[in-house]
Design a protein that fits this description.
Strand content: 15-25%
Number of helices: 17
Radius of gyration: 48 Å
């Protein structure tokens, strides 16, 4: 709901602040007083194009600010979050600044916003019905949405949309798989051949390092045996070997230790050295005896090494990396083979399409029933609005191809006069007719519409008398569900307002300025009398005005 509107240096308004309430509010005033300024200001605030001529004469820029109550409107909170324009909880602040050169800036909750964002946000907040229409009812998606809401099919509409996306996802997956299958056939064959070659090669992890170590040992077997035997001879076998010389040293020092006890520690160390040397001799004998000098295993290892080197060079990797390369190719091949299960993807697409079709056909049935009922009800309301013989219809045209929103397009058609053909609502030329048609539609679909603030301009063009009373009563009825503002020049409509604002024009300091103020009960009688009788207001006119206000107050 619109809570407040502040306008500064806009057209002929120097400064104006209005606080709004719910219910039905009327704005009246002399011709040319600026009654439509509020509509123009809100239109600019909600994304209309800016023009430097909108800036009041003598001012540098115009500023328009509005505050809205968004409590209970999760769709607005979601939109603000998606666009990173979140502000205080349950409140929304819009601002538009226009300078004399026509440059403008939009702000949402104090943050810069584009005109497109202002327009999108405005669709949640206000519908302005009239010759200068900021009017969601003209859009095809709104017409479709209102019909679905009236049919009680909003949830089904969402299910159809979800099913559509599911179907399209399945279709794209199948198409991509078919394309990928054709493009990757050669790749799969290449990978399969390479995987088969390395699998048959049976390269084991760390085999290359182990193989090279074994080969080096076998290739130098004779030298290793000879060196080990020489070491054994030097340590224990040949004349003057290490162990025998060590024994001589031990005997001599043992005799001397009785003369000097300090040699005991040295003798203990020599005993340890002797023990370790004997362990070394024993180990070398076992080592030399364990070396196989048979050349057959050596030849086999040479062939294996050459094979691994050849395959590694072929695939441009190191021999030790062959097992990792095999695992990588196996994973790639598995991915390609899984992606080409065209039959499974086709079955999934068919199932998704069938689900969409079933939901869409159910939605079509609900739409047909609701379209017939809604057309009759709106046509009936139009008869009360000086549109005798006019008719309204909702056309459901089958689409050549299914869409995310169902199997048919939805278009509102109107015949404004008896004997004329139905035409799209968007092509109705008369602003007054369009406003009254919109009013009839709003009355009928008010229980499902979501925009909280409705503003009507020129709904009373070309009507009077009893029809004007009906219009006023209809607007008052809408005011029980919405915040309704109406610019009017008819006393019958003005007398139905719960609140009454008077728009006037004055000259101040050489400039014409517009003022708006709320009227009290006595002032309302005076204004209604002016609207009834013109410049000269008689007691009879005042009595008539008071009677109209009293009767309107008792109207449910």
């Amino acid at each position: 709901m619109l809570l407040s509107l502040s306008v500064r240096d806009f057209v002929i308004v120097d400064q104006l602040t209005l606080d709004f309430s719910d219910g039905f509010t009327v704005l009246t005033g002399e011709t040319g007083a600026g009654k439509s300024i509020i509509l123009d200001a809100l239109g600019l605030l909600l994304g209309d194009r800016a023009d430097g001529t909108l800036v009041r004469e003598g001012a540098e820029r115009a500023e328009i600010t509005a505050q809205f109550d968004c409590a209970g409107r999760p769709e607005i909170a979601a939109w603000l979050a998606d666009n990173e324009l979140t502000g205080d909880d349950d409140e929304l602040l819009l601002r538009r600044i226009v300078d004399r050169n026509g440059r403008s800036k939009g702000l949402v909750n104090g943050q810069a916003a584009t005109l497109a964002q202002l327009r999108q946000l405005g669709e949640f907040l206000v519908d302005i019905h009239g010759q200068h229409a900021h009017q969601s009812l003209m859009r095809a998606d709104t017409q479709r949405g209102l019909l679905d809401a009236y049919a009680g099919a909003s949830a089904l509409t969402r299910d159809v949309l979800d099913a559509w996306h599911g179907w399209q996802h399945a279709r794209h997956a199948r198409e991509d798989a078919e394309k990928s299958s054709r493009e990757s056939e050669v790749e799969r064959e290449r990978l399969a051949w390479q995987v088969n070659e390395l699998t048959e090669l049976a390269v084991q992890p760390d085999e290359w390092n182990t193989l090279n170590q074994s080969y080096t040992r076998l290739a130098n077997a004779a030298e290793l045996v000879q060196s080990a035997e020489l070491a054994v001879d030097t340590l224990s076998e040949m004349e003057g070997n290490c162990l025998s010389q060590l024994a001589t040293v031990q005997n001599r020092l043992s005799k001397l230790s009785s003369l000097d006890p300090r040699l005991s520690d040295t003798l203990s160390l020599l005993d340890s050295v002797e023990a370790e040397l004997r362990e070394v001799v024993h180990g070398l004998r076992d080592y030399a005896g364990g070396i196989d000098e048979d050349t057959a295993p050596l030849l086999e290892m040479e062939r294996r090494i050459e094979t691994l080197l050849s395959v590694a060079r072929k695939y441009r990797v190191q021999p030790q990396d062959l097992p990792e390369k095999l695992a990588d190719w196996q994973a790639q091949l598995a991915t390609l083979e899984a992606a080409v299960d065209i039959d499974a993807l086709t079955r999934a697409e068919t199932a998704s399409q069938a689900r969409y079709r079933a939901l869409a056909e159910s939605l079509s049935g609900k739409r047909r029933q609701a379209a017939s009922e809604l057309s009759k009800r709106i046509s009936a309301e139009m008869q009360h609005l000086a549109m005798k013989g006019a008719s309204f219809a909702i056309e459901l045209a089958p689409l050549a191809e299914a869409s995310a929103h169902g199997l048919e397009s939805v278009e509102y058609l109107v015949a404004a006069n008896a004997g004329t053909s139905l035409r799209p609502l968007a092509k109705v030329a008369s602003g007054g007719e369009l406003s009254r048609i919109s009013l009839a539609m709003q009355v009928v679909i008010s229980q499902v519409a979501s925009v909280p603030t409705l503003i009507f301009d020129e709904v009373d063009v070309g009507i009077g008398g009893r029809v004007a009373e009906v219009v006023g009563q209809m607007l008052r009825q809408l005011g029980s569900r919405y915040q309704v503002l109406c610019v009017t020049h008819l006393p019958q409509v003005a007398s139905c307002g719960v609140l009454h604002w008077l728009v006037s024009k004055h000259e101040e300091k050489g400039h014409v300025v517009s003022r708006i103020r709320a009227l009290n009960a006595e002032e309302r009688v005076q204004e209604i009398a002016r609207m009834l009788g013109g410049a000269e207001i008689t007691p009879t006119t005042r009595e008539h005005a008071a009677e109209m206000l009293a009767m309107s107050a008792t109207t449910p």
